[in-house]
Amino acid sequence: MKKARSCGYKTKGDGSWGKNVAVHPKAIVEPGVILGNNVVVHENVIVRAGTTIHDNVVLGRKPQVAGIIQRLPKPQLGPLEIGSGCVIGAGAVLYVGTTVGDSTLIGDLACIREECRIGNHVVIGRGVMLNYNIEIRDRVRIMDLSHFGGDILIEEDAFIGPGVCTANDNNMGLIANVQRKGPHICRGASIGVGVILLAGVTIGEQAIVGAGALVAKDVPARTIAIGIPARVKGDVPTDMLRPVL
């Protein structure tokens, strides 16, 4: 507790706040927010009313570089803003410069980097890693232990199964000055367990990618792609088209 005060953080441990909570004086935590034990809220953070933050969460972490890291973070980033009615699971880390809409669930041990934009009624599962500059629109569901590189767009009502991984540079940093671009997952698309999506691919609206596939080329809307590498095997049956709003 003394250490938190010496760093300029206010501490509290009663009612809706757990024990050993540290909140920077410049952070905005609206009334009705529940903070679990050992939560740290840095400056430049806004948490809207009705949100629950579970134990050991870190909000508003600043990106840092060390060693051979090539991508330098932007010097000026906006606040981390978390909407109303959200739930942030235990041990999650959310960086500054990211926005989270209303009624979104972020699972235990998830990590969301800077410059991400997450919509309303989204589910992000346990242990999910979202790298920088990712846009996730409303009602998307991302299941446990998926890993997303930067520069991705996931449109409304998409479903991402467990253990999905993406790339935004197929050259793995071996070629200089390559423009990085992650996958584009269109509305209502479904991505199966353990799929790998390589850089720049587009998964069309309401398309399905089968479990374990390696996607190196675009998948047209309302088709099914399976295999390594993934190939289109037919159209999605009408009764399997994921509803979109």
In short:
Helix content is 2%, strand content 31%.
Description:
The structure is a single chain. By secondary structure, the protein is mainly β. The strands form four sheets. Strands 4-7-10-13-16-19-22-25-28-30-31 form an eleven-stranded mixed sheet, with no helix packed on it. A nine-stranded parallel sheet has the order 3-6-9-12-15-18-21-24-27, with no helix packed on it. The N terminus is likely disordered. The termini are far apart. It has two domains: 121 residues, UDP N-Acetylglucosamine Acyltransferase, domain 1; 88 residues, UDP N-Acetylglucosamine Acyltransferase, domain 1 (3 Solenoid), CATH 2.160.10.
CATH topology of the largest domain: UDP N-Acetylglucosamine Acyltransferase, domain 1
Radius of gyration: 19 Å
Task: Going across the biggest sheet, name each strand in turn.
Answer: 4-7-10-13-16-19-22-25-28-30-31
As a percent range, the share of helical residues equals under 10%
Q: Which residues form runs of ≥5 with pLDDT under 50?
A: 1-6
- What's the domain count? 2
Instruction: Based on Cα principal axes, name the global outline.
Output: globular
Q: List how many beta strands DSSP finds.
A: 31
Biggest sheet record: 11 strands, mixed
Distance between the termini: 48 Å
Question: Which CATH architecture of the largest domain would you pick?
Answer: 3 Solenoid
- The CATH class of the largest domain turns out to be Mainly Beta
CATH superfamily of the largest domain: Hexapeptide repeat proteins
**How would you state the average pLDDT, rounded?**
92
Alpha-beta classification: mainly beta
Number of helices: 1
Strand content: 25-35%
